[in-house]
Amino acid sequence: MHIKCKGSSVLAKLAELAQGGSEGAAYLRKKEGLLPITMATRPGPLTKWPWQWMGNFKYLVLAPAVLHTVHRVATKGWGDLDPAYVTMLPALLLRMIHNQIWISLSRYLMARRKNVIVDRSIEFEQVDRERSWDDQIIFNGLEFYLAYAMIPNVRLLPVWRTDGAIITVLLHMGPVEFLYYWFHRALHHHFLYSRYHSHHHASIVTEPITSVIHPFAEHVVYFMLFSIPTLTPICMGCGSVLGVVLYIAYIDFMNNMGHCNFELVPKWTFKAFPPLKYLMYTPSFHSLHHTQFRTNYSLFMPFYDYMYNTMDKSSDELYEKSLKVTDETPDLVHLTHMTTLQSTYHLRIGIASIASKPSDNPVWYSWMIWPVAWLSMVLAWVYGSSAFVIERLQMKKFKMQTWTIPRYNFQYGMNWERDSINSLIEKAILDADERGVKVLSLGLLNQAKALNRSGELFITKYPKLRVRLVDGSGLATAVVLKSIPLGTKEVFLSGSTSKVAHATAITLCEKGVQVIMNQKKEYDMLKSRLPEGRTVYLKFSNKDIPQIWIGDNINDKQQQRAPIGTTFIPTSQFPLKKIRKDCTYLSTPAMKIPQTMENVHTCENWLPRRVMSAWRIAGILHALEGWEMHECGDDMMDIEKSWSAAIKHGFVPLTKG
């Protein structure tokens, strides 16, 4: 969300919008903004979490509790632990898993656009603001341990008590829903809204984790509210461990569901039991609260909105409309695959905070989720029978999706896996063709020459394909050429056989730039493809080593031979391993994307934010320009034509030659 104003005027404007009803919402929906809202507009006391200063080390606040558990087990044995104590840590882990499942499900369905509610994009600003969703779980852990230490009854809790569970349900339906409703309405008063609640409402398009993105002070109040149904039965002597755990699971489930940006509550549920509409909200019901601001205040049970006449009159209409939205057919599909095991959680449907940064940006907890990565790889290998949607982008009215082949880099190198992988690629191509997709671009190893001859295999097998296949070599070559510094007289081509490397070398020779090679087989092959008058610019030598190197995979030994100050320019989709600190390494061929491209909140593999590989951009240009040819096999788009089209549509080079 952006507000088109600067300085302190933003603060007043947002507070005004909080009271502006549908008019304020319309302002937020329609205005093009300059200033992103990333926190409460006038932060009040206790806005920040107490451990915010600790950054990624915030989990250390739970260290005393963990150490106490270890000491207790070491001195008294496992038999000393009661059900309540044993359940605390697993309950926290289950909460994190529960939330992550909702995040992945939401992002997958949002990429398909099925039953979508608010047709707007999510950007990096929102992802960064919501990456602290686990703070409330840490807070919950501290609450557990403090309650255990301070309330004697907790240590005597049985696993289950039916009477206590009934009391919990009644207390939630009564005091909790009532008090939350009026507290929520108070939060929308301009005084509290500008200091606290505006942080939550910065997300117009909600995701499941939006539900818990609040200032610390709000969470303290929510803790007191939700303690009523959990502590009351305990104090009455009828509480139970499962009663507490299941109630928290209910809170998480309803919170996550209500903040999905797609409708998932089927119509038959309300037909089977009509009063349910007063006892359970839907994602579309709560979405109206985030777009209209002054309606639909209820926690999970809308009967107080009905009672106090604050239910949005369009709630039923939006619910019906959202259920009718079907899967979207994109203009373009980019077909990629997973690379390393870690790439499993770098997917858009993986861990949001990891996916929003380049994949070579390490995270401290990656070793903890290795088992999940291994399990995902095995499941993908055994059960992955088709490509799946992971991302949806939009550039004005032009719609794009990214589909992923459920295979990893190492599998593309196995000869006995090639037929299986080609079958998956073929299935994706035929699916795109049947759905009316205009262009399908082959990303990463899906276009490998040894696998399918840069896609030529498929157009040979299916000559009547309506979808255009693009390997992106024309634009990738253009980006490499534009990355070479102006005035360069000679370059070194390091043993490369790729389509882009050869096209780059041939173009350089045609421009009168000396291309030096030291591998005879590749030299002879390339020389045979040069016009007779230009072979003089291709030189075989083991001694003349210039400071501009281009190539697909320049290994460690080759890099060590390069002179000091060498610039390495990769012609591959995969980055070079950087082993020389006295040399410069350029990015894989890529460009910055235009501001008109929306819903970009993940990084493409190792590339920075809002940077896209040239191979992927080539597919976009192919569709935008309406080019009819397949760019596969030996066929390549005109290099200058591809470059001009990229500049025309707002793509910006990373480096200037």
UniProtKB/TrEMBL annotation:
<dbReference type="InterPro" id="IPR021940">
    <property type="entry name" value="CER1-like_C"/>
</dbReference>
<keyword id="KW-1133">Transmembrane helix</keyword>
<feature type="domain" description="Fatty acid hydroxylase">
    <location>
        <begin position="170"/>
        <end position="310"/>
    </location>
</feature>
<protein>
    <recommendedName>
        <fullName>aldehyde oxygenase (deformylating)</fullName>
        <ecNumber>4.1.99.5</ecNumber>
    </recommendedName>
</protein>
<feature type="domain" description="Very-long-chain aldehyde decarbonylase CER1-like C-terminal">
    <location>
        <begin position="491"/>
        <end position="653"/>
    </location>
</feature>
<keyword id="KW-0472">Membrane</keyword>
<feature type="transmembrane region" description="Helical">
    <location>
        <begin position="164"/>
        <end position="183"/>
    </location>
</feature>
<dbReference type="GO" id="GO:0005789">
    <property type="term" value="C:endoplasmic reticulum membrane"/>
</dbReference>
<feature type="transmembrane region" description="Helical">
    <location>
        <begin position="367"/>
        <end position="390"/>
    </location>
</feature>
<keyword id="KW-0456">Lyase</keyword>
<comment type="similarity">
    <text>Belongs to the sterol desaturase family.</text>
</comment>
<dbReference type="GO" id="GO:0006950">
    <property type="term" value="P:response to stress"/>
</dbReference>
<dbReference type="InterPro" id="IPR050307">
    <property type="entry name" value="Sterol_Desaturase_Related"/>
</dbReference>
<dbReference type="GO" id="GO:0071771">
    <property type="term" value="F:aldehyde oxygenase (deformylating) activity"/>
</dbReference>
<feature type="transmembrane region" description="Helical">
    <location>
        <begin position="220"/>
        <end position="249"/>
    </location>
</feature>
<dbReference type="InterPro" id="IPR006694">
    <property type="entry name" value="Fatty_acid_hydroxylase"/>
</dbReference>
<feature type="transmembrane region" description="Helical">
    <location>
        <begin position="137"/>
        <end position="158"/>
    </location>
</feature>
<keyword id="KW-0812">Transmembrane</keyword>
<dbReference type="Pfam" id="PF12076">
    <property type="entry name" value="CER1-like_C"/>
</dbReference>
<keyword id="KW-0256">Endoplasmic reticulum</keyword>
<keyword id="KW-0521">NADP</keyword>
<dbReference type="Pfam" id="PF04116">
    <property type="entry name" value="FA_hydroxylase"/>
</dbReference>
